Amino acid sequence: MINTLYLPEIREALAEGNETELREFVHALHPSRTAEFMEGLTAHEAWEVLKYAELELRAEIFSYFDLDHQIDILTTQDHTDVAELLNELPADDRVDLLSELEEGLTTQILSHFPASDRRATVRLSQYPEGTAGAMMTTEVALVQEQWTVKQTLDELSSRADAFETIYYLFVVDDANRLRGVVSARQLLSAMRTPSKLIADLMERDVVAVRVSDDQETVAEQVADLDLLAIPVVDDERRMLGIITHDDVIDAVREEAVKDAHRSAAIQPLEESYLRTHLLTLSWKRGMWLSVLFAGAIFTTFLLERFEDQLKTWSWMIAFIPILISSGGNSGNQSATLVITALSSGHVSLGDWARVLWRELKMGLILGLMLGLLGFGLATIVGSVPDIYSALVLPITLIFVVLAGTMIGSTLPLIFKRIGWDPALMSNPLVASLMDFVGLSIYLIVAIVMLSSRAL
Fold first, then answer.
1. Global pTM?
2. HSE-up (13 A, CA, CB side) for residue 164
């Protein structure tokens, strides 16, 4: 019978030292489910439970804990035990976790690693964050061109546990330069000809990424070619490691979180929300709020400049929220569509003319639609003196929505062109800019139409 202990039962088993139940618990389910049932345990309690699993299983369960829980365990438990656990994790995951710890603690933990593993870990940790080098693992199955199918299978069977994946076998020469790739399926299909050489079996056209490539570039390559893993090479095409699809998924999630932060006018967080210091979080939010506040000052000055006209046509004030929100919303829609199209590779900078022409037509369609609604609203609001005055609102809406779509689509392209992240063209920034532009258009249309009528 599968033993699934719940939190109180786990604690009770720990208190009683019930080895049978705890050992059965850690072996009963998939490691991800076991980790779920352990949510809520303290770092010490979780570690005590993990001790009832063999090292390989212990590391696998540990890998499913959330980051904060993992760090709590690493910082509170014996350095020798922690080093043994970390050394069982894939090299890239190990480096990522160690980078979250204080430098002194990292050094102490690494001192308990075998010398070869310590050197490999330090070497991987030196690659800049967000690059292919920082994402890759060195636990990769490499084979030689002159090996036979039988030799290759014998080598894999003796060392399979040392590799993160064996879906792809990468072929290298004596200088470790990447020469080709053989899939596990190809190798198994060739078992009937055990003397066949890998050189005759491999595919020579191998897509690889450079160690310095950005993680977004890596993600695009893996997604476009539907790969399970992609090799990482240096400038001389020497094999350094591989990046597996699960690491790409993690990178995509990380980029999505960063883009979500930027779209809300927040500088991306380096740590999780709960682990970020309050002052750091305040700065990352406050710096953008200050920029948006400065933008709002211009809108205030504009209102002050045209205060007399607004007093004369006081009925116009009631429609200001509708106008600036319509401009901001249309701008946000365009910015979001262009940013996501750029990120997914559906649009490039060379398509700028097509994008602007498309958004120009879209702005006119949406502007006319909202203009009709605005005219209907203006005619039923009792404060609007006549039909002619009511035309100010729909005409303004057409221009405001048109301006919103053009600004929202143009600014991400400009940011991309100068090398900035298009996501910096956040929705709050577009909305703040459209407050000023929309109000300016409103006042200009009103002055042209109503002042000329008065004359």
1. 0.58
2. 23
What is the crossing angle of helices 43-50 and 55-63, to 10°? Answer: 140
Query: Residue 205, exposed/middle/buried by CB under 10 A (0-12, 13-18, 19+)?
Result: exposed
Tokens 């958004």 — which residue? 359
DSSP classification of residue 269: P
- Rounded CA gap, 347 and 338, in Å? 8
374 contact partners, CB below 8 Å, separation of at least 6? 319, 322, 393, 394, 396, 397
Instruction: Strand 209-210: give its sheet, edge to edge.
Output: 209-210, 229-233, 239-244
pLDDT tens, position by position, 15-59: 888 888 889 988 988 999 999 888 888 999 999 999 999 998 999
CA atoms within 13 A on the CB side of 298: 13
Span 243-258, pLDDT tens digits: 888 788 777 777 666 6
Could you tell me which of 48, 42, 15, 17 has the C-alpha nearest to residue 26?
A: 48
Nearest Cα neighbor of 396 from 313, 332, 455 is 313
